[in-house]
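Archive entry. Fields below.
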Amino acid sequence: MAVGLGNHRPGLAAGAAVVPGRGRPARSWRYLLIAPVALILTVFFFVPLVIIFIYSFSETDVLSQIEFTLQNYVGIVNSGPKLSMYLNSVMYSACTVVICLIIAFPLAHYIAKYLSKTAQAFTIALLVAPLFMSLLIRIYGWRLFLLKYGLFNEALAWVGLPRVDGLTYMGPMAIFGPVYLDCALPIFPIYVAISNIPDELLHAARDLGGTGWRVVRRVVIPMAAPGIAIGSALAFSLSFGDATSSEVLVGDNVQLVGNMLKFSYGYAQDWMSGSAESVIMMVFLLIVVVPVLRWVEVERLMSRGGKR
Amino acid sequence: MDQPLLEVDRLYHRYGEEVAVREISFDVQPGEFIGVVGPSGCGKTTTLKIIAGLIDSTSGDIRIDGRSILADPPRKRPCSLVFQNLALFPHMTVAENLAFPLESLGVAKSEREQHVREMCSLVDLADGLLARPPGQLSGGQRQRVALARSLIYDPRLLLLDEPLSSIDFQLRRQLRKMLSDLHRRIGKTFLYVTHSLEEALSLSDHVVVMKDGEILQIGTPDEIYRQPVNRFVGEFMGDANVISVRADGEAGRYYAEELGNSVQVTENAGLETGYLLLRAHEIDLTREPRWPNAVRGRVFNRYDLGGSIEYSLALEGTGFHLGCLMEKSLAAEFSPGDTVYAEWRSDSGIIVRD
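PREDICTED_STRUCTURE:
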């Protein structure tokens, strides 16, 4: 279903706007069709990325007076606090991924194999719905809920239990926020992967003596591995770049990459360091995510019958 | 009779409003090869899956060795199912597929490997294939892997759900023989579901013919073929001429409008109206009739089947097409347009009810 760019058609004039037999637009039209997307991506994503990349090797933030330096990177490597912020982010994101998978996998499994088609569509819609709401609103909701005189503590007081102060500034909240925001996302690729496992395989595994857990461990998890990998990559990269939820829920009590970037670009107005910090973050994410996406053939995951 | 291995007792199943299986009962003796045959939607696969425990029946009972197994989960039932699409695990090697049931039983690893090798030699599967994923195997090899995987943990009863349906004709005959030989060698009880009566007859000790969720007939292959209980069972093999008839007054004589003639039939169960079943190979084509049952027609077409020729004969007067199968070596050959007699003995055709 992807646009067949590698589809060479000898004998078909390159510029001719002929629609060939199989209903696929001729080559010239294909390029025209992707032009708007390509334009938007170039102007709003690619060009800014290039600018950030240039800044990260520059002494000044005046684009016309760029002078090459490695100082921005050397500064990060020599800074203990900055390195520990990267380390914090890696650890917190890893925890987030694990917790997200613990929530997402059973849910996706249940939706894909135990619900009727209608119930599946309904549940998926329910999971998507909150994503339309602003991330800020959802996170502030939690903050208000968990404040000293918020709903949670009022409820505790109402049943006669002591209030818990400082819930919103506890370290683990730096995991809670991303888990809450991102745990729905891995559900989708895992759901697709599990849906594609033919029922006969699960029946066969049960018939051949498999207990529920063994069927999950030996058949469902290995066969859904591509979905799990993509879901993990999603959750990891989103929580790694998170700045909002940690600021709203934990303030400055936990220092993450997001805080560092905000400080460099904001308070310090040091765009060169900020750019170098961003480039390191992006390179790290690419190193983590690209092998995952290469290993999983996304197209095969999305198409039914990709088992063979 | 001995204690049956499997008893299906008034089994009934409904999918929503649709009744799939209507109170069917049959017994299977230990070591038997039972073929359950019927057109698609007759409830045969549903029955099989209820026995395996993959579907819960609406009512009725399934007993193995006299004990009801309906409360047992599939893994506790002493039967194993070979699926129509084989359901080999694509992410495991052949060896891992074969070892899966043993692993579930907690068999030690060294012992598993030994069992796997034994099974491979039993179903004639080369050891070199063990390290490959099932996707790299041929259809016949995959078939053998699925069989071996189901037999490896020594189930009392092997259930087979049309395992040969996706295989091409030539290989299917070969695998059919392999299956029959395997059954003879290991003496296990096989319950084989198929939509091909020919397949069921060639493999089974007893055949159960199903239609619309009901059992029409249970019998040996010979009984099913020679004494079908009704028109459906008689027609199911696909080699019979079916001609509507009514009693002619005289004992054993019936008038067949489509033949434009009355015929003498020994086997008629005293029916007033019914159908004359005349197998194509029981009809003889000749220029000079010798037997009392003969009709005249023109050869409409001939189909060369290698060892035999099938003729389609358009009958004089009625235009009814009669199918006749002649061994090549035994008879004179005819060409389209020839006028010939089709004749058969009075003990050849039988009269069945609708």
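CURATOR_NOTE: Chain B touches chain A at residues 52-54, 73-75, 80-81, 83-85, 87, 89-92, 100-101, 103-105, 135, 149-150, 153 (CB under 8 Å).
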